[in-house]
Amino acid sequence: ASNYSFPDDFIFGVSTAAFQIEGAWNEGGKGESMWDTYLHKNPQFTPDRSNGDVAADSYHKYMEDIQMIQKLGVKYYRMSISWPRLLPNGTDNNISREGAMYYRTLFEELLKVNITPIVTLFHWDMPTALMDLGGWTNPKVMDYFEDYARVAFNLYGDIIKTWTTLNEPHQHCYNGYGLDYFVPALMSHGVGEYLCTHYLLLSHARVYRMYEKEFRPYQKGKVGITLDAFWAKPRDANKAEDVLAANAYLHMHLDIYAHPIFSDVGDYPTFVRERVNNMSLEQGFSRSRLPYFTDEEILAIKGSADFFGLNHYTTFIMSPSSMEPKWNVPSLDHDTGVKVDQNLTWPRPGPEWLTVYPPGFRQLLNYVQDNYRMLRDIPILITENGMADLGQTEDYERVAYFNDYLHQVLLAIHEDGVNVKGYFAWTLMDDFEWSDGYTFKFGLYKVDFDSPEKTRTPKLSAKNYANIVRTRRIDFNYIKPPII
Ligand code: BGC
């Protein structure tokens, strides 16, 4: 067992996201999200031609979900509200009564059994009606996000005291607006991903300030944001150019979001600003592809979070780019200019991007702590961490992953003094994994997607996590693969 234990005030939870588990895509007055619309039109987007129409059917099976959370022994449940389930057109002139009731009931049922919901407002399921207007490239959509947030605070703020505005704006903008790996699959040639980044940061800040002014005085809750980061490991730590490449990656993918919110500067990092400005100039743009904040906006963004939600899965290896300069299609990748290798470990069945490298987690936590001086009153919450495989219930690799990654969290707390205050495993149960459909599974509980009941079965990793939560320690021998 690890000699360290989790401090008394450290919280354990489990995470999900609405689109990935709810199903009931057109029930209860729900409007379409851009994922519904896009997947119905482009069934080949996922390798198994699947979508979120039914998913794990949590819209109907939430009472069973709650029992599963209880069995894990965790006291916190991080989940998201589906924006189009609450506001079918994305706008607050039309609030779905059934949608509003659904979340109210769910929150109350959780609280009855002492599980505190932590609620994400935007986990990628943009209402189609607003995506049709340009989604996060249209600054007007910020108004509608603010209206939606206000509806949510009004409806639930009496019982929900911890909110996160956005889940992983980076994955959303980079893969959805820059590339075609996520919906809306815009492939925007270096412009759309930065508009998305810019307006998401502003949207976050507006909701934070709105809560502060209109709700915090009497609801007394906290509002944060969830950012994501892979750790970037230089291919050769003794080579200056590899170290530079790793730093460039972190600046362009993590600090572009973290720096405006969590630094004392309140703006994009100088590195990012200069890099995108220079590249834009070279490419013949007469303005930078990265928009500028006004002074007023900087004031609003700076310090606009009560905690730093961090999602972490894997480590990539970095070296200088081998891209030819003539391959000059503007993009965030091109701006970053590094070569990313993912093969840190031997291949195993699962998503290619997710290789297991536990020490990267501790280094990332230290990076966040050192660069953003995370203080006692602004803690880090690990809002997601987990691993995918093909879905077997004897998931020894997932058991080892959670043990090893949580061990790195313990080291970061006890040996490095990093202010981490909580951990949420990704994810409660197998779900719709975005562009992987149902081909890879992250759940602590298996979901039999072929059965009409969407039967749930605990995996060994659920038992192991429950043991960690109960003992507040990691016992590496609690579950061991059979010796063959
Ligand atoms: C997202 C989840 C997703 C997970 C695993 C994170 O980027 O927040 O929605 O399922 O990674 O791919």
Describe the structure.
- The protein has 484 residues and is an alpha/beta fold.
- It contains 16 helices and 13 strands.
- It has helices at 18-21, 34-41, 58-72, 83-86, 97-112, 128-131, 140-156, 169-178, 192-219, 240-262, 270-282, 295-301, 332-336, 359-372, 396-414, 460-471; strands at 11-15, 76-80, 116-122, 162-167, 222-228, 231-234, 308-311, 315-320, 338-341, 380-384, 420-426, 445-447, 456-458.
- The strands form three sheets. It has an eight-stranded parallel barrel with strand order 1-2-3-4-5-7-10-11, surrounded by five helices.
- Strand 10, helix 15 (396-414) and strand 11 form a beta-alpha-beta unit.
- Helix 8 runs antiparallel to helix 9 (192-219) and helix 15 (396-414) packs parallel to helix 16.
- The mean pLDDT is 96.
- Bound molecules: beta-D-glucopyranose (BGC).
- Its EC number is 3.2.1.21.
- GO terms for molecular function: beta-glucosidase activity.
- Keywords: Glycoprotein, Glycosidase, Hydrolase, Signal.
- This is beta-glucosidase.
